[in-house]
Specification:
The protein is mainly beta. About 5% of the residues lie in helices and about 30% in strands. The protein starts with a helix and ends with a strand.
């Protein structure tokens, strides 16, 4: 935004004046500060609706817009923790209670086999495995990402705990890593990462090999990080609150290391906690790093990083929370060779930037046209459609990778996808189409397919509100096909359980090959599923579940290999289903 950047002249004048008056000026601490969640800029924050009881239970329609974006982990398929060739599923349970302490969080690991996912060897992890005492509201398992960070051939798991308190300041966030082994994730290797961007650190995670050295690297989003508390640092714009940062840690034989790590922010953040900047100016509430994705968009064999900034304001500050995506290219020395910024006001992008759209709230990567370069899908779940009469109907924009010296993905020729584009689907207010995304080759034709979650979709002729829907668009030479389409709900034939109000089927998605048949399978999070307890016989409201639908030569099928339904009360699964756990809110 030219208007915003013109403010740098004022800042430069202020700096010169300070120096003239003999007031020291220097760039400060390398640790990004966080002043806590309340009273930013002198205001009193209202209660967080995401922490309140939903009425009716599980029905969050109308509240999602103010909730923090779910931490979707990403990267190429590397979720094989025991290196047996079968992908394994990590399930985040961020609202798990422990010892009477609420929302501590946890992660279930369900291992793959020739028969698909199996409870054999299932593991349950929580923060005590990493040396932490239980803390209320820590939300361990909010975000997940699995990559081979030490190059031993076993996938390792990074887990975000974004609301862990520091010694003084609340909700600074922590990220932990546990290494894979022949017997699965090895708790003896559980470690805390030395992340120094603070402010819900670990709310988003993604891995990629950004420097092409064969070791997986990890990007950590801290969307609530502030530009305050630095000696000599004067934020360029507003108060510098919740501007957001991303830290990139590089893999090595001994695992992830802070040596040569990079701290990324937006323009004006360098010297105020960031080493590098990209995109627009750092402003209050941008929440740079709310979502992350990685892929090789330009086909140069180095992974590139996409960073979601869903609360970016555009125009003359009149398009609040319209959203932006920043892309940074990888190279032999890591991220930073060149960058690209995209909004809905960019040439060739569908729709238009509007207040509250939150373009970039969720990201995923796949090669949808089979040309050997990764493509980027951007969720816009609060896009208003039907001449803006359908509030929060939602949309998705797909950008295709391109071998260009100037940009990473092409905006011209990109695809704008809404339910109005898809046969048999209708746009309705509150559907939140694009709330979750996943890419996988479900029919093994060499092109990735795109799964899109609409957790606010009402099904059965609109009689079951917020039951949820997943749309699958199959890849083609021109990208995701509008005509080769599947729609899945819990009322679809062969899908276990049934659609109920407030379930929000499709709230989270992940696609790996859990039975090693050469086709991706789709895991679908249903975190507001009510579960009948096998131990007490009582209904556990919002305990959560995961549906799994397997790939086949013709695509996803609930019958070629029977679809599965997993809860914490499934036989052999560690822990028990309890009210409010939200098993399946995050998947990897």
């Amino acid at each position: 935004m030219i208007l915003k950047r013109s403010s740098t002249l004022v800042v430069h004048i202020v700096i010169v004046a300070l120096l003239f008056l003999g007031i020291p000026w220097q760039f400060g601490s390398p640790t990004v500060g966080y002043a806590g969640p309340a009273n930013h800029g002198g205001r009193n924050d209202p209660p967080d609706p995401c922490e309140q009881s939903l009425t009716p239970p599980g029905n969050a329609n109308g509240l999602h817009k103010r909730c923090d974006a779910i931490g979707i982990g990403g990267g190429a398929a590397k979720g094989d923790f025991n290196r047996d060739g079968f992908a394994d599923l990590a399930v985040g349970v961020p609202y798990e209670d422990q010892n009477g302490i609420g929302s501590v969080g946890g992660v279930n690991i369900i291992y793959g086999s020739s028969a698909g996912l199996t409870s054999t060897g299932d593991q349950f992890l929580d923060e005590t495995d990493f040396g932490f005492a239980y803390g209320g509201g820590d939300h361990f398992g909010w975000a997940l990402a699995a990559g081979d960070f030490n190059g031993d051939g076993y996938s390792d798991l990074a887990i975000g705990m974004p609301d862990r308190d520091g010694e003084i300041v609340a909700n600074i966030g922590k990220v932990v890593v546990i290494n894979g082994s022949g017997s699965g994730l090895n708790t003896l290797t559980a470690t805390q990462l030395d992340v120094d961007v603070l402010g819900r650190a670990g709310a988003a995670l993604v891995w990629g090999d950004f420097n092409g050295d064969g070791f997986a690297d990890l990007a950590v989003g801290a969307p609530e990080a502030d530009l305050i508390g630095f000696t000599g640092c004067i934020p360029l714009f507003q108060n510098g609150m919740s501007v957001g940062f991303v830290q990139v840690l590089y893999g090595a034989p001994r695992g992830l290391t802070t040596f040569a790590s990079q701290r990324w922010g937006q323009f004006g953040a360098v010297g105020c906690g960031a080493d590098f900047h990209v995109g627009d100016s750092a402003e209050d509430g941008d929440r740079f790093g709310s979502s992350l994705a990685a892929g090789d968009f330009n086909g140069d064999s180095f992974d590139d990083l996409a960073i979601g900034v869903p609360f970016e304001d555009l125009g003359l500050f009149d398009k609040q929370d319209a959203g932006m995506v920043n892309l940074v290219t990888g190279n032999i020395s890591g991220l930073g060779h060149r960058s690209q910024n995209i909004t809905q006001d960019s040439s060739g992008v569908g729709g238009a930037a509007e207040t509250g759209d939150q373009f970039g709230r969720v990201l995923t990567v796949g090669d949808f046209n089979g040309d050997g370069k990764d493509d980027l899908a951007v969720g816009i779940p609060f896009e208003d459609l039907g001449s803006n009469a359908r509030d929060d109907a939602g949309a998705v924009q797909v950008f295709f990778g391109i071998p260009s010296p100037d940009v990473l993905v092409a905006t011209s020729g990109s695809l704008f996808i809404s339910q109005a584009s898809l046969p048999g689907e209708n746009i309705e207010a509150g559907d939140l189409f694009g709330w979750a995304l996943a890419a996988g080759d479900f029919d093994s034709d060499g092109r990735d397919d795109l799964a899109i979650g609409s957790p606010g979709e009402a099904v059965s002729s609109n009689t079951i509100s917020d039951a949820g829907l997943v749309s699958v668009l199959y890849g083609s030479s021109s990208g995701p096909s509008f005509t080769r389409l599947q729609e899945w709900t819990q009322d679809s034939s062969g899908v276990p359980d049934s659609a109920e109000p407030g379930d929000q089927f499709g709230y989270a998605l992940s696609a790996w090959d859990y039975n090693f048949d050469g086709r991706s399978d789709l895991a679908i999070g249903v975190p507001f599923e009510d579960v009948l307890s096998t131990s007490t016989g009582t209904q556990q409201i919002d305990a959560g579940a995961v549906n799994l639908i397997y790939g086949s030569p013709t695509g996803l099928s609930s019958t070629a290999r029977p679809a599965q339904f997993w809860t914490q009360d499934s036989p052999g699964i560690n822990d028990t289903a309890q009210t409010g756990d939200r098993f399946g809110q995050a998947l990897y």
